[in-house]
Design brief:
By secondary structure, this protein is an alpha/beta fold. Helices cover 42% and strands 24% of the residues. The protein has one domain: Class I glutamine amidotransferase (GATase) domain (Rossmann fold). It has nine helices and nine strands. Strands 2-1-3-4-9-8-7-5-6 form a nine-stranded mixed beta sheet, sandwiched between helices. It is globular and about 55 Å long. It starts with a strand and ends with a helix. This is GMP synthase.
Length: 277
């Protein structure tokens, strides 16, 4: 029985972050449930310039994080770009696939790297529990299989992905699988919320790892609380707090997307290792 090796890429640049804690918890729950030996290692990408060697791992989860996703001249940016290319290229030619999940800041970095559209600053910081809508392709997305349409997810971002370059998507074989809520009274383009980059690579602009506890913890930060009240109004803010631990909202999203991704990756890694044997 072969080991399954998971690399967690911490993109928080030395900021304390609930999301990364949640990613570790989900990975450790997967480790506990697995009959196989699951090894988890953490890499501090932005603060310590650490990047995993893709040959040493099977699964990668790259977190959200603060700041501008456009290049600012740091050493880690080149390393992360090379990492994205090496996973993508490896999977084209190798039977032994590598699986990668990109969250929020990592999702934005990858979308910029592959020149998929306009990743720009939002008018105001967005924070809250948002409805996320599946696209037609999203209806077929197995990671969303047990989620309603719309489903609910935690959103926390100063940047957004709008104006996708559909020719580029087609050229690379990538698909938009979720977009933000349609608001007919607001004349703004709907942001891209999730992309199926390839059979093995998936990314979300929202936070599939978030749970009610971490959300409440984040709301202790005045910036988040103010952003939520500014975006939704006080009534909606109070309603969101009240509905935070509804079983059919972020609890469902957390229980589905990343755990399903890990199970899918494991199944295929084990199948691949049988073929190799």
């Amino acid at each position: 029985m072969s080991d399954i090796r998971i690399a967690l890429l911490d993109m928080n640049n030395n900021h304390v972050n609930q999301g990364f804690r949640n990613i570790k918890e989900i990975s450790e729950a997967f480790q506990l449930k697995s009959e196989e030996n699951v090894i988890i290692e953490t890499f501090d990408v932005r603060y310590k310039n650490e990047i995993p060697n893709i040959e040493d791992f099977d699964i990668f989860i790259s977190s959200g994080g603060p700041g501008n996703p456009h290049r600012e001249g740091f050493e880690w940016e080149d390393k992360f770009s090379d990492f994205l290319d090496s996973v993508f290229e490896h999977n084209k030619y190798s039977e032994n696939k590598k699986y990668l999940f990109l969250i929020c800041h990592s999702f934005q970095l990858a979308s910029i790297h592959w020149k998929l559209g306009n990743i720009c600053k939002r008018k105001s910081y967005s924070f809250g529990v948002m409805p996320v809508h599946k696209t037609e392709e999203g209806e077929q997305e197995f990671l969303f299989k047990n989620l309603p349409d719309p489903f609910y997810a935690v959103d926390s971002r100063a940047f957004q992905f709008i104006e996708p370059n559909y020719d580029r998507f087609e050229e690379l074989g990538m698909k938009i699988v979720a977009i933000e809520k349609f608001r007919p009274h607001i004349n703004l383009e709907r942001a891209v919320m999730a992309i199926r980059f390839s059979e093995e690579i998936f990314g979300t602009q929202f936070h599939p790892e978030a749970n009610p506890e971490s959300m409440m913890e984040n709301l202790k930060d005045d910036k988040n609380k103010e952003a939520m009240i500014e975006n939704f109004g006080m009534e909606k803010y109070l309603e969101t707090i009240d509905r935070m631990d509804d079983e059919d909202k972020i609890i469902l999203t957390q229980a589905q997307i990343l755990p399903r991704f890990l199970q899918f990756a494991k199944k295929n890694i084990l199948k691949g290792s049988e073929v190799m044997a």
